[in-house]
Amino acid sequence: MYLTRLKLIHFRNYEQLNHSFYPGVNVLYGRNAQGKTNILEAIHICGNGKSFRVNADSKTVMEGKEGAYLFAEYVESMDRSVEVLIGRDRKKSLKIDGIPAKNLKELLGNLFVVVFSPEDMKMAKEAPSLRRGFLDGEISKIRPSYVDALKNYTKIIAQKNAALRRRENRDTGAVIDAYNAQLAGYIRIILKNRKSYVNKLGEYVRETHRAISGGTEEISIVYKETVPETGIAETLKKLRERELFEGSCTAGPHRDDLEILLNGKDIRVFASQGQLRTLMLAVKTACLKILEESTGHTPVLLLDDVFSELDQTRKKNLLRTLKGIQTFITTADDADAKLLARAHLFYVENGTVRERQPG
Ligand SMILES: Nc1ncnc2c1ncn2[C@@H]1O[C@H](COP(=O)(O)OP(=O)(O)OP(=O)(O)O)[C@@H](O)[C@H]1O
What domains does the chain contain, in order, with CATH numbers? Predict the structure, then answer.
């Protein structure tokens, strides 16, 4: 799958854009704050219905304007399109192949897009909630039913937490047992999905990571569960007294984490910035492969400012791993644009895009 055309009206610093792109590597280069990442953001919204930079999409509407219009034309096996209208009032309208879509769920599963942005580095280093959020987001793309299990689980955990906090009722124990009975089924579904995703992810990350790092480093990714999949009901029962004492749910998928080891050591403590970036690139490429396997379509890959902190060898190795994937890369560094001379180059300046002709 590849994007052939992007049209924007009143999106960020683009008054109007109507530009075509190529399969293969498209490099957006230019000085800082010119609108390179804005292009990636627009493509991401067309694919995933939301920005990867801000929670409120209304912030992407050009200052002083009422709404933004985004149109992405892409080739699957035939020409297809996605249109998004974002209102400053937060209302959003969507069209798929010219036909209005009822909701975001309908949009997902059309233009597949995977993004790597500097923000993703936080996932490796910071709070476990970021790693859980990453896993849940990726699994939801390939298993829509997972979203329902997760929503129900989260709702029951909130109710159970409220009951544990109240504790004034003599029957609280029985109420907690009733919640646990409901939770057990959802925990099973969440663990099954997360663990099988992590197994596959680990395998693909190792492969790509070796290719980018030149085979000098070994990565391992392990899912750390707080309630074992093999004894869910028993564990919840055992936890009951402690939870009643502490007044909150102390274990379950909402407390689980991913452990990422580089040459056997925790990356949060031992990895350099370049190593972290290499790891996250391998993670994103692995997500793309998993998405490709389950949908039969190769997603479009967006790499925002990916080259900083990578040495020349890693940059070249990364480019080799991108074969067959339409990729958009932003860079403010002219030397990177030269390294990417065989790609299609687009000079971005003050909300305009100009293709640099070869030669
Ligand atoms: N809602 C908006 N309305 C108008 N202009 C905006 C809006 N949001 C952001 N901008 C402008 O977009 C520009 C930033 O664009 P972008 O984030 O794409 O930069 P970039 O070219 O990727 O830069 P860098 O190399 O620094 O990452 C800035 O000039 C900013 O003022």
Answer: 2-112+297-356 (3.40.50.300), 124-265 (1.20.1050.90)
